[in-house]
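Input.
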Amino acid sequence: MSGAEVRVLLPDVLAAAAGGTRELRVPGAAGLTVGSLLDGLGIRYPVLERRIRDERGDVRRFVNIYVDGEDIRGLERQHSEVGPGAEVLILQSIAGG
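Output.
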């Protein structure tokens, strides 16, 4: 893996919406944010985007996103920076009883 690539890790429940893969690699770039990363993923995988963000473009309530282990809710949410070589983990909570 190139040092400039960003690794996006998905659980099985979201991997199906990304062509069945649990790891996506995207080019890292200066100024890349969680929002712009999700925009790019949404172009390639529109079903995945609908699972992650609502119709307004906000991260869904039961989706958690971590950049290098840090929850974006404690950072700048979709404005959080994603540096070259970062690891982004996207988790979808599963509710049930």
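The chain is about 25% helix and 25% strand.
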